[in-house]
Amino acid sequence: MNIIKAINRTRIKDIAQKANVSIGTVDRVIHNRGEVSNATRDRILRIIDEMEYQPNLMASTLASKKTFSFALLLPEPISPESYWNKPMVGVRRAFQEIQQYGININIHLFKQSDANTFNTEAGKIIESNPEGVVLAPFFSRESMEFISELKKRAIPYVFIDSNIKDSDKLSYIGQNSFQSGTLAAKLLDFSVPENSSILVLHFAKERDNMNHLVQREKGFYEYFNTNLTSGKKKLITLEISDPNDIACQNQITDQLKSNPEVKGIFVTNSQVYYLARLIEETNISGIRVIGHDLINENINFLKKGIVDFLICQRPEEQGYKAIITLFEHLVLKKEVNNENYTSIDIITKENLDYYK
Amino acid sequence: MNIIKAINRTRIKDIAQKANVSIGTVDRVIHNRGEVSNATRDRILRIIDEMEYQPNLMASTLASKKTFSFALLLPEPISPESYWNKPMVGVRRAFQEIQQYGININIHLFKQSDANTFNTEAGKIIESNPEGVVLAPFFSRESMEFISELKKRAIPYVFIDSNIKDSDKLSYIGQNSFQSGTLAAKLLDFSVPENSSILVLHFAKERDNMNHLVQREKGFYEYFNTNLTSGKKKLITLEISDPNDIACQNQITDQLKSNPEVKGIFVTNSQVYYLARLIEETNISGIRVIGHDLINENINFLKKGIVDFLICQRPEEQGYKAIITLFEHLVLKKEVNNENYTSIDIITKENLDYYK
DNA sequence: ACTTTTTCCGTGTTCGTACACGACAAAAAG
DNA sequence: CTTTTTGTCGTGTACGAACACGGAAAAAGT
């Protein structure tokens, strides 16, 4: 018997001795590697339980040649500044932290305008047979097909940005759009004088995950329905199909002209900068504006004071957490939260700098 | 020569071959372990640079018996619910993540009312000769002494909560109190009608790091000085020495009675719950209240709608980041930010749940 | 020139775990 | 009863780096 190697295995050896088996048997049980009779397995498991044996993660990954590959399926960012770049930043940060544990990440992008690209990329992911998947279930029918395939292969998947209920997901990482709408309502309610009206503006062209917009609007109305003291305020809803079209822009300015008591505007998605541009050009003043998402165009108008509040849902953190969740589940074998709502941040000119 | 071991060292062997030296020499250079002539050291360093050799952190910590001990010097929490418990939560989380790298954390607490306890604990820390220190420089003279001792021993230190300029600190993790005051001002400015007055309330008894309070007030006034459109609002400042004293409470109610146009109150520290209690008891309504810190007492009043906004600076994250910063500097040998301001969060009843 | 000291370098063992290989016995097939 | 298959188990080596030990070469001392 080699004395030296036995020293290295002291911990396992302890267990082996107590169970009256060999070291090899013990680590077969520990790593679930079969080739052990049920009786000895049970005996060993009980002893391990008593000792509270904690395997050393570093030695483990060092010795193991196992690698994990995670696949991402996300919408393609429309421009270098647009929303979907943000989660990617978080993904990269997570990757930096965990790549040493033998983790690879493959990013697959689909076009938000074309469900076929979603299917194509989903197919590629299935083919590559990853250990875990992160996806934004943008197209719900296609997503259902994809996850049923994943379920068949016992590949865990994490939803990001949008959720699908009752889907055996490992986790959902994202926002609570309804609450974010309620919050926007409160802020506007506080920021405009009594008896003024509020305009709810949908820029709906680029159907950037419509469900969120609907939820935000619902939350917004919910606030004014339940807070009776604010009941005097009138709400007006306006849908703008193409914010670049002059006719559409006129729609807005007309609305404002015919309703001079409108003192607050709520834009349900990240495209508040279209409105801000219009306000800047037409020199309208005295209107509080609230929108979503910390993207560069919006930041500029926030600094200028044309947009008063931005509500933001930490997209970088969503990307980061999605990856880390898979990691914790697969590598660390920790319990993970089935639902993980990111915080709903209120950003103004004053605290902007601290959300980099 | 043992063939097998040579295989294990392939990467370093590559370098050794190119530099025409032995494997041992290379790892001496890599780990700065001396016993290498300057000429060969330089040659090897150049080659390492070209190869972009990245040491494997896991193998490294596994083989190394080196352990790091970090010492913390923080104010003792006054109650189980009070502010200074929060950073501790973050510290524990950080510890969970990095303890496997051989890191110990020793927590030293001092009494906020007694600078001597600060000195005693600081002495103990010096004696224990840790690899890194996190401290809240609550007492500035005593802190200066302490850090000069640390500097002598080349022990890096991270400030948390408060900063000391020009102190050769490794990093500062904390809030920007001035900006947080500005932000509070904006929110109140938006939330009260024009021509109303605003009351700034200091609960100054427990001198919980006075400097922050001063900075917040400065920021608050700064906002109203620069935003001329809001110039019509009158600001009143009131200092309350003992919020439990009835005379002091009357001071507040008197102030509100004699100035019925006060429609907003800003409490500069976490003790807004004293005011909220008073408001609740006396059934005053129609006043917007803004305070600091997400502690349980405040949360209750936020939910009840008596406090409208809480401004919060993520104390858990401050604790977490302080530890991680030391870790990154000492173990990962990464560059760390010299100043790290945590985000200034606005919390209302509506988004409270997402800041757990 | 010879000994002693210093400087430099090569190699083997080690950290805690994973896994391949092969030994051996029992069961199944011939 | 022999041969093959299956089911268990023990041990040795590897993962990538850290570090001790001791030997060779160079420098210093006599």
Short summary:
2 copies of one chain form a homodimer. Helix content of chain A is 47%, strand content 18%.
Tags for this model:
homodimer; 356 residues; alpha/beta; Rossmann fold; 3 domains; six-stranded parallel beta sheet; 12 strands; 47% helix; disordered N terminus; DNA-binding
Provide structural commentary.
- The structure is a homodimer of 356-residue chains.
- The first copy, chain A, is α/β, with parallel strands linked by helices and 356 residues long.
- The first copy, chain A, contains 14 helices and twelve strands.
- The first copy, chain A, is elongated and about 90 Å long.
- Helices cover 47% and strands 18% of the residues of chain A.
- In chain A, the strands form two sheets. Chain A has a six-stranded parallel sheet, sandwiched between helices.
- In chain A, β3, α8 and β4 (157-161) form a beta-alpha-beta unit.
- Chain A starts with a helix and ends in a 9-residue tail after the last strand.
- In chain A, α2 (10-19) packs across α3 (23-30) and α7 packs parallel to α8.
- Chain A has helices at 3-8, 10-19, 23-30, 38-51, 57-63, 85-98, 115-128, 140-152, 177-191, 210-226, 246-258, 272-282, 296-304, 315-330; strands at 68-75, 103-110, 132-135, 157-161, 171-174, 197-203, 234-240, 262-267, 288-292, 309-312, 339-341, 345-347.
- The first copy, chain A, has three domains: 1-43, no CATH class; 68-175 and 315-342, Rossmann fold; 177-312, Response regulator (Rossmann fold, 3-Layer(aba) Sandwich), CATH 3.40.50.
- The structure holds a DNA duplex (30 and 30 nucleotides).
